[in-house]
Write the structure tokens for this entry.
Amino acid sequence: MNIESMLEWLDELKIGEKDQVEMPETEDGCLALLDGKLLMKKPSRGGKWPTIVTGPDRHVQVLYHGKMVEQPLVLETTQGIAFRLFHRPAKSEFRLGVSSDKMEVWLETEFEEGIEYRVADSDYVPDLVVVSREKRRHAPKPIDPQRVLDELEKMGVKMGADAETLESACQSGENSRVLIVRGIKPEPPVDGRIEALHDLTGTRVREEQGDRVDWFDRGKIDCVEPGEVLAFWHPPVEGKPGWNVFGERVDPRQPKWARFTAGRGVKLVEDGTIAVAEIAGRPTIEWGQICVKPELVIDSDVDIATGNIDFTGDVLVMGSVREGLEVKAGGLVTIGHNSYHADIRAGSSVDVRRNVIGGRVSAGGDMIVTIKMAALLKRIIPLLRQLQTLTLQIKTHTGFAGEEQNGSGDGHLIKAVLETKLPSIPELFADVLELLPRTEELELDREQDRIWNILHHIARRYQGANPLRIQSIREVQTSEKALSKVVAFLEDVLSAPADIKLSYAQNAELEATGDIIVNGLLVYACRMSAGQRIRIAGSCRNGRYFAGSSIVVRYAGLNETVRTSLAVDEGGFIAAETFYPGVRIQIGHAKMTIRELRKNVIFRFEDGKWSEEYFSWGSV
């Protein structure tokens, strides 16, 4: 072979060049879903194998040989794979609720459509996440009204249900809350009524002309002469009992002014329906009795020359009350000038035409005790109800049930409950006894003292070892009912509160069952307590001030070093044109300190949070 032939041969071999070999393309495996059937395409050589997993859908699960697939599962074949569907069943449910007073039964219905699900179709994908799709819905079935009636019977409901309302709620297929059973409410009584022919509040009205005030003007007051008719009494009409949904009798409340009584200076005529004055004086209502108060006039100062004043009627001091002197009155007290470090106590309102410097002023007399007493009794009454409930529960579920029949009574059980569960009952009754006068001081011909005597008897029953003498739990129920009547009576008495009016106060203590009204420019370093309102037309600096419903001042505080505290009961409000930093305010149990100057604000505390409103003098 020559050289040329060898070169041609080498060219044919194409030395240095790789043969071009076509390789097949790699394909990953895939899964698909069609009509609930799992389809699979296996991968070609070198391709990725497909995976399957349960999706976030709570209505479908992927199972592999019966176990849920929660993590991606590599599939070699579709064998062993199944799907579990969770359909939502239709719902038709009801609930019954009884009102707290047992006078109403409410039906609540809840309907929900049922939903049938299917496995969602999917095109071929390498990683299949299985989810569901809604297939169809089913309407909920109506509720059989008889089921509701059967449940009412099990609950012990005796009153009949409103058939039309019941049928409509059960068949509507819509969520609803409807009243289906009503008790028969008691018919309220018609309260006794006093038709007064005179002002029985005893308020003096002073006429002022322009800017000039005659401080020696006694003002107008309604006075009567012997024989004058004071009032007519329209007797009450008893209410009629009702029945709750369980067929239990519900008695109406007792009517107010169930009787007409006369106090000092008054006579009843015409079968006790007409009150006539027996003496000259001021007509008023005191402890549910119509009285006539005489009036004592001091035409000078109350000083060492006059001595202390103690009078059952009204007292008018034309001058001032000097240091260390006392003025006590069963009715109104009016002071034409000032009170200097004196003790002023009135059964009704107090009007100091000028200033109160030091000392103490009290308006309402026993009414202040009455306010505290009513508040205590309102706390005790629900506790006595708890005592009855707990005692009856223990008797029902333990061996105490036969103690009463064995002669030992319920006393041991009641005392055990008081000591272990309700120790506050004896403690609160001890507070009641502290407020009450001693029994030897009581005059049982007086309405007020008869009330105090009843409270003495009840309160002592729960002190020390005395609960052991209680024979039956029914005595606790009797105590509760008696206290409820006493509270109603005390609230009637408190319906005519006593006020204090003055122009200026400094380093004084003032206490009134009604309002405390200061018309001058300043109140400084005082302690005030009002059953209703405090209203100060000028500045209020230093001291502590409490009112039942509201405190309204022009300027509250001065700076952070002058401690000024303003407080009202829950539901009340505190307002000022100017709040200086450092003023402490309290509404109920909520407290707050003013940190920066605030203008024209009314503070309230409602629904667990503080709120503010715009305030201008005269708007409240």
